[in-house]
Every structure is written in structure tokens, then in C-alpha cells.
Amino acid sequence: MSIERFLNQTVSPWMNAEGPESDIILTSRIRLARNLKNFMFPTLGTQEEAKKVLDKFKQMIPLINLYPLKDAELLMMEELQPLHKQVLVEKHLISPNLAEQSPQGACLLSQDEVISIMVNEEDHIRIQCIFSGLQLEEALNLANAVDDQLEQHLDYAFSEVRGYLTSCPTNVGTGLRASVMMHLPGLVMTQQMKQLIPSINQLGFVVRGIYGEGSEALGNIFQISNQITLGKSEQDIILDLKNVVEQIVQQERSARESIVKTAGIQLEDKVWRSLGILKNSRIIESKEAAKCLSDVRLGIDIGYIENISRNILNELMILTQPGFLQQYAGGPLRPFERDVRRATLIRERLLLENNS
Q1: Is 31 annotated as a binding residue?
Q2: Coil, strand or helix at 165
Q3: 199 belongs to an annotated ligand binding site
Q4: Which residue of 16, 50, 252, 323 pairs with 86 in a disulfide if CB–CB is 3.0 to 4.6 A?
Q5: What's its top-level EC category (predicted)?
């Protein structure tokens, strides 16, 4: 295994699986933040301390006895080109923060890309597990299994009163950040999403774009995650998030049914026009591509389109990002060149789907 495998495999295996509620919920993610005792947090520590943390982590890797991490690959940020790091960010395998961090940053990736352990990000250790569809409990169980393995060999910074100590106060306690990535075109089209976001925030959850904090909700894809980690158990956090997500799923289904009933022909026209744009465009910007892909995925989900797999939309959402386009081109591309290559790639991929 090598970095080329992670770069050239367009969609992580967990994005191809059909998890529960996968027509609306793309992925469930669990992230655990941990720091080592007697070391400064990465946000305040020196490069020398960061190197010691990384060395401790490297020494521990051969001692890990967990099958999902068998043959896992350690990727050193200082050894990766900026474009390679951008691709890993676009695949949600590392955070933008880690990509921009010091040379002492690293990431241990499992072969199936379900587990990602980031080192020297905002915290010393960040364990991430991603599953398809609504599988928060499954992702938490795996993350806890990884955490247990690491804690056998690493001395965590922990307080009996406050729980796990983290760089950001909002992560103190369980150190758990749970999130789901949802495709919500119905709620956006019916203008309900604008009203829903403040209500979700009031319940202690946050709504972000496709790449987390500060990112845009391209293609009607939103991330819903918990804000509170202190004073609540992991199970309570998961249960509360799951309850909120299930309500959003019901509202999205109702919104889709309403649109089909009240604007069926207009919606059908919108879906097929978007598919026509994707099949025939010679130049397409990322925002327009994301919008059209969202429309086509909705058309697949409600039965307008039957000869295209839903998974291809997952694939194209990643494949048409700037980093991936340049990776496949073999080097940097100007914005206009990316728009041309994006259109070509989408046409060729849809043609391949129709011929399969």
C-alpha cells in the first residue's frame, strides 16, 4: 500500500456501501480528541514537543492489535505534496487543519479508509471513523476500540472532574464529535432549511457545509454535529444526535413528497435538465456541477432516473473537486482548465455508466 492508492481510489469503500437511510444520509462520522499527558497542546507546543509526540505514536503502531488497522499506512505530512494533501482533505480522510500543520503532522489510515488517526492536529491524537448511512453506534464502537488500543500504550491527559482535556474547550469531556452528512434538497427547495438551522442550533447541534467548519453546503449537502461534549455521556450524545437526524430525515422525505405532488412536472424537468447539462457541458464550474449532481441524485432517489447508480453521484462529488482534477491531470490547472476537465470527466463517467 502507498499514498498513490489513497489518491487514485476516487471514492472510499465506505461511500459505496448502502447504509441505513443512505438515500438521505451519506455518512456517519465519529471523532475522538485525545492529548498526551505532560505535553503542551499542539496549539501551544514547540516543534520539538510535536516530534516527541509523533515518535511516541510511531513506536506504538507495531503494538496495535486491532484487525481493521492491519496493514494501515502512516502518511507523514512533510512527505506529501500540497496537492496530495488537498486530495486527502477532499476525501474527508484528513482535516484541512492537519494539511496545513507543522511537518510533525501525520495520519494513520486503515486500508479500507474507515479509520483515520491524525497526529499533531489541533490535538495530539484525533481518531476518526466513518461509516455509510446512519450508523453512529457502529462508528462509535469502532472508534472506542481504536481508542482502547491506543490508551494501552499512551498516557492520556485526563481529569476525573472534566474528562479528556483538549485544546478547544468545546471538546473537553468525552472529546467526542459525532456528525452525519446529509443530502437535503427537499428542505432547501421548500425553504424549510433556513428555518430548521436555528432550531437545530438551539438543541445543541451545529449545521456546517460539506467540509466542516467554514465550508459551504455544496450540492445541498450538510453536516450535522454535536456542540456539547462536557457533562454528557458518549451514548447520550449519539442518541440525541440520532433523534435529531431521524426527524430531519422524516422532514426531508415529507418535503420531497410535497414537491412531487405540487410541482411534479417542474421537478422532473429540473432533474432532467440537470442531467442534460452534466451529459453535454464542455465547461462547468464546481458550484454548478454540485447543484446538477444534487438534482440528479434526487431524481434517482424519487424514481425519475433508473439507469444511473446513486453511488456514481458520491463518486463524482469527490472526483470533480479541484484537488482530484489536478491529481488526475498530473499537475496544477488554472480555474478555467479545471472547469473544462471537470465537464469532460463527468461526461465520460456518465457515458461509462450508461454502457455498463
Answers
A1: yes
A2: coil
A3: no
A4: 323
A5: transferase
